[in-house]
Specification:
There is one protein chain. The protein has about 280 residues and is of the alpha+beta class. It folds into two domains: about 110 residues, no CATH class; about 160 residues, Bactericidal permeability-increasing protein, domain 1 (Super Roll), CATH 3.15.10. It contains six helices and twelve strands. The longest helix has about 30 residues. The radius of gyration is 26 Å and the shape is elongated. The protein starts with a helix and ends in an 8-residue tail after the last helix. Belongs to the BPI/LBP/Plunc superfamily. BPI/LBP family. Pfam families: LBP_BPI_CETP (PF01273). Keywords: Signal. One of its GO terms (molecular function) is lipid binding.
Length: about 280
């Protein structure tokens, strides 16, 4: 019995990193992990670099530059900060080498280190009702630029013009592509999840998640159903449960109410039955 109980409770606690609970605080630990994973899983910078080599950002030719290719994309370093009431500010630091034939007729090589910044606003999907991030105000900030071209005003003007045409169209869509992966993490919030063979649990959002200074708070109203579809009513919770104080900075926390756990145990009652014999 204890083994079954431990497995169930551990499953609930573990699953809430991607599946919702009753009251969840998403700290920067989980948010950063999900964004970093999305960037790595999508390989978006490498894909966009390859696409730029085929046709150029936006499919438009760059004046004074032909046969453009993008290579040697650096592994991105991602920095995130919560923006209260808005969402998350994101900065992606990376670099690359842009090559091609310049207006002078010679081979050109530009080594660029840059920051991509954007605000990811937390909204609600109108169709599904689930939370979603949408990027706003994407900007490209040049950190350093090196080239094999001679240094003069004409070349400097050409470089400035070329980079401002190439980089936004190449880099900013990467932010949106990563958010597609991140937003998929919210997709299963409205799905019924099986609890063994005994029933299901559905975690419904009570409101749009709120962004605070050090976390995103998500409130859920759990629906516990038996295998035949009968809903186990949750008792009145009374006073809203509170998170413990002095938790680790930036950490995520899950708070399961006693009423929710009572309903869960009621669902699992048949599997928890045990006969105890008095042994002398």
């Amino acid at each position: 019995m204890l083994q079954i109980l431990c497995l169930v409770l551990c499953g609930l606690l573990t699953g809430t990193c991607t599946d919702p609970g009753a009251l969840l605080r998403l700290g920067m630990d989980i948010v950063n992990h999900e964004v970093q994973s999305a960037m790595e899983e999508s390989h978006i910078l490498e894909k966009m670099a390859a696409e730029a080599g085929k046709k150029g950002p936006g499919g438009k030719p760059i004046k004074g530059l032909s046969n453009m290719k993008v290579k040697d994309v650096l592994v991105p370093v991602i920095t995130l900060n919560f923006v209260p009431g808005v969402g998350i500010f994101q900065c992606v630091s990376t670099g690359m080498t842009i090559t091609g034939k310049s207006f002078t007729g010679g081979y050109m090589e530009i080594i660029v280190v840059l920051n991509i910044t954007a605000t990811n606003r937390l909204l609600q999907d109108e169709e599904t009702g689930t939370p979603m991030f949408k990027s706003e105000g994407c900007e490209i900030i040049l950190v350093s630029v090196k080239t094999n071209l001679p240094s003069n005003k004409v070349i400097s003007k050409f470089l400035d013009s070329t980079l401002h045409k190439v980089l936004p169209g190449l880099m900013c869509p990467a932010i949106d592509a990563v958010l597609v992966y991140v937003n998929k993490k919210w997709a299963n919030l409205t799905e019924f999840m099986p609890v063994g063979q005994m029933g299901t649990v559905k975690y419904a959002l009570t409101s749009l998640p709120a962004t605070m200074a050090d976390h995103i708070q998500v409130d859920f109203s759990p629906v516990v159903q038996q295998q035949k579809g009968e809903t186990i009513q949750l008792a009145d919770a009374g006073e809203t449960p509170k998170f413990p104080e002095h938790s680790a900075e930036g950490s995520s926390q899950l708070l399961l109410s006693a009423t929710f756990l009572t309903a869960e145990l009621a669902l699992l009652q048949s599997s928890l039955d045990v006969t105890i014999q008095d042994q002398k």
